[in-house]
Design goal:
The structure is a single chain. This protein is an alpha+beta fold. Helices cover 22% and strands 21% of the residues. A four-stranded antiparallel beta sheet has the order 1-6-7-5. A hairpin with a 4-residue loop joins strand 6 and strand 7. Helix 1 crosses helix 6 and helix 5 packs across helix 6. The radius of gyration is 20 Å and the shape is elongated.
Length: 294
């Protein structure tokens, strides 16, 4: 499933075409994706102007001049393609699951006032779209319990210490808990823990002092989480299996992985003679160095 940097990359790819454009026509080609489309989906979108295109955790948010927000989630295989006014369509990316031929898996098509056409394709239909009033968005079931944004101003050592204080759960599990920190996934948590020199098995509560303040490890982890995500966004995401840019090109952050997917390879940290190991935590592969991550 795409992680925060991939979703942010998609947002940036869609923004030039969508932001400020009016939805002249919307094609809804099936009644549901993972969930049924909301009532009068096409009617509520047609003629509306997209005032802004944002992101919350792993959700894309298209604010409409009606006061509603089009909430979009890519699921496992969802992707957007953009066709320019000149009719130039993006080239297909390298996906594990092939896109449907002749539009088989093209489920929603947005025809925009600027001449662009944006198509949502989803082979396995694990993604979804819904409409939510902006005024009640934060109280909506999808967002009510979503944690802090790791690229926002809230993330620092003190915040991590507050969130993790008293928790005996493994540090990796705590970082993947979307109720605490939003948008982090398996790939970038592995990378951040490796850079911070922290074991994925370490109890999350050890990042807080007895008085609740942040340890030096908490400060380091907050800093490297931001660094890893910012680098990934700048590089265009990590294109694993089903993800590609809206223009069909691939992300390149996978070439900078220091731990993820490097089982049995030497640790990349200078001076470390360890080897990257793989263990399974909560059904997911964790890659780390048992020598330098403590």
């Amino acid at each position: 499933m795409p992680e925060l940097p991939e979703v942010e990359t998609v947002r940036r790819g869609l923004e030039p075409a969508m932001a400020g454009a009016t939805l002249l026509r919307v094609e809804q080609r099936r009644k549901d994706l993972r969930f049924p489309f909301p009532d009068r989906f096409v009617e509520r979108l047609t003629g509306r102007t997209v005032t802004a295109l944002g992101r919350r955790a792993k959700y894309l948010l298209a604010d409409l001049d009606s006061g509603e927000v089009l909430v979009m989630h890519l699921g496992m295989t969802g992707r957007f393609t953009v066709e320019t006014p000149e009719g130039e369509a993006s080239a297909p990316g390298e996906f594990h699951h092939a896109a449907g031929g002749a539009g088989t898996h093209d489920h929603v098509v947005f025809h925009l006032s600027g001449g662009h056409r944006i198509t949502y394709n989803d082979a396995r239909r694990f993604g979804f779209m819904t409409l939510v009033e902006r005024a009640t968005l934060e109280e909506h079931a999808l967002f009510r319990h979503v944690g802090i944004e790791p690229l926002g101003n809230e993330l620092d050592g003190a915040t991590l210490a507050r969130l993790f204080a008293g928790r005996s759960a493994p540090l990796k599990a705590a970082l993947l808990d979307q109720r605490l920190v939003a948008g982090l996934g398996n790939i970038y948590v592995c990378e951040a823990l490796h850079r911070a020199g922290l074991s994925p098995n370490r109890a999350a509560g050890t990042l807080a002092k007895k008085d609740g303040g942040p340890t030096a490890r908490a400060e380091t982890l907050a800093r490297v989480i931001r660094e890893v995500l910012e680098e990934a966004v700048a590089a265009g995401g990590s294109t694993l299996r089903d993800y590609a840019h809206t223009d069909g090109s691939l992300g390149y952050f996978q070439h900078a992985f220091r731990a993820y997917g490097r089982e049995a390879e030497p640790c990349t940290k200078p001076g470390c003679r360890g080897v990257i190991r793989r263990i399974v935590q909560s059904g997911r592969s964790t890659f780390f160095c048992g020598e330098c991550q403590r």
